[in-house]
């Protein structure tokens, strides 16, 4: 097979520009030595004047193309800023010694919270960057341990963003706690997809969750419970629900009896105070 070299292609510069315009990552495959200046053999009117201009166009198209830009580029810092604005994940290719590195970190995580994984934890504003990250992409919780353990914060994020998938990145104290999962299931039944395996493999827990949330029950029955156990699961949910209803009715009866007893005691107290000439306050 013959290998085609840039010098063998009449319109190499034009083809390079077309490739870059469609996908900035094409910069990886472009030979810098074949694009020099207007006097160069393969550069025509309307094409980049030099390789650095082509790098700029590549980064404008896809920020991740920064990884293929030589650091000796005359406008390298400018390209770094351009890259993280286009794609926050381009931060991984920005040298930490860049004079505006912390500013670029902030831009990056606001563009895509997943860029937080490339920010040094010792950054002076790291906690603020964590908040920016969660706001721009809830999936960034996988890089923020302090939020992985905060159930109220997690629940608020799920409620506001409907990103129930973030539960898989929380601590076992959340994704493995049946009471918390039931509470989340009443927000979004899909939580059963990402709850702890310890709950997925616990038949009693699945019945409790399915009884508390109809949406969760439907998912559990179709996708978690084996087909030959689905009827048994439905019956278990029905019996548990009936038992819960009975327990509620019994509790209401006990409360009614207690209220009647308290009312009688208040009446007796009133009678005693009246006989003693006291006023009830």
Brief rundown of the structure:
With 281 residues, the protein is an all-alpha fold. The protein is 56% helix and 0% strand.
What's the SSE blueprint?
Blueprint: H1 12-22, H2 51-61, H3 76-86, H4 101-111, H5 126-136, H6 145-148, H7 151-161, H8 172-175, H9 178-185, H10 191-194, H11 197-200, H12 203-212, H13 214-224, H14 230-276
Spell out the key features of this protein.
elongated, 14 helices, mainly alpha, 281 residues
What report would you give on this structure?
- This protein is mostly helical and 281 residues long.
- It has helices at 12-22, 51-61, 76-86, 101-111, 126-136, 145-148, 151-161, 172-175, 178-185, 191-194, 197-200, 203-212, 214-224, 230-276.
Oligomer: single chain
The whole-angstrom Rg is 32 Å
List the total number of helices.
14
- What is the helical fraction, as a range of percent? 55-70%
**In one word, what is the shape?**
elongated
Strand content: under 5%
Report the biggest beta sheet as strand number plus sense, adding barrel if it closes.
Answer: none
Structure classification: mainly alpha
Uncertain residue ranges: 37-47
State the end-to-end CA separation.
104 Å
Counted beta strands: 0
SSE succession: HHHHHHHHHHHHHH
Q: What's the pLDDT, averaged over the residues?
A: 82
């Amino acid at each position: 097979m013959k290998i085609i070299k840039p010098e063998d292609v009449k319109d190499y510069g034009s083809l390079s520009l077309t490739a870059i315009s469609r996908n900035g990552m094409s910069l990886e495959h472009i030979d810098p030595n074949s694009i020099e200046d207007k006097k160069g053999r393969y550069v025509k009117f309307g094409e980049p004047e030099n390789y650095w201009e082509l790098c700029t166009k590549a980064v404008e198209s896809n920020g991740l193309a920064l990884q293929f830009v030589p650091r000796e580029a005359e406008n390298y810092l400018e390209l770094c800023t351009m890259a993280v604005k286009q794609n926050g994940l381009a931060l991984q290719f920005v040298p930490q010694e860049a004079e505006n590195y912390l500013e670029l970190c902030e831009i990056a995580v606001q563009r895509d919270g997943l860029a937080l994984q490339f920010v040094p934890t010792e950054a002076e504003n790291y906690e603020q960057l964590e908040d920016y990250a969660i706001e721009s992409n809830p999936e960034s919780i996988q890089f923020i341990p302090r939020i992985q353990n905060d159930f109220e914060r997690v629940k608020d994020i799920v409620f506001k963003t409907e990103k129930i998938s973030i539960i898989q990145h929380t601590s076992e104290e959340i994704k493995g706690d049946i009471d918390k999962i039931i509470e989340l299931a009443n927000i979004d039944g899909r939580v059963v997809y990402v709850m702890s395996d310890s709950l997925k493999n616990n038949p009693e827990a699945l019945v409790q969750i399915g009884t508390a949330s109809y949406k969760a029950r439907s998912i559990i029955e179709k996708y978690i419970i084996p087909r030959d156990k689905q009827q048994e699961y439905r019956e278990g949910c029905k019996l548990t629900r009936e038992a819960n209803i009975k327990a509620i009715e019994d509790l209401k009866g006990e409360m009614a009896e207690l209220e009647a007893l308290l009312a009688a005691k208040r009446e007796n107290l009133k009678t005693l105070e009246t006989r003693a000439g006291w006023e009830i306050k």
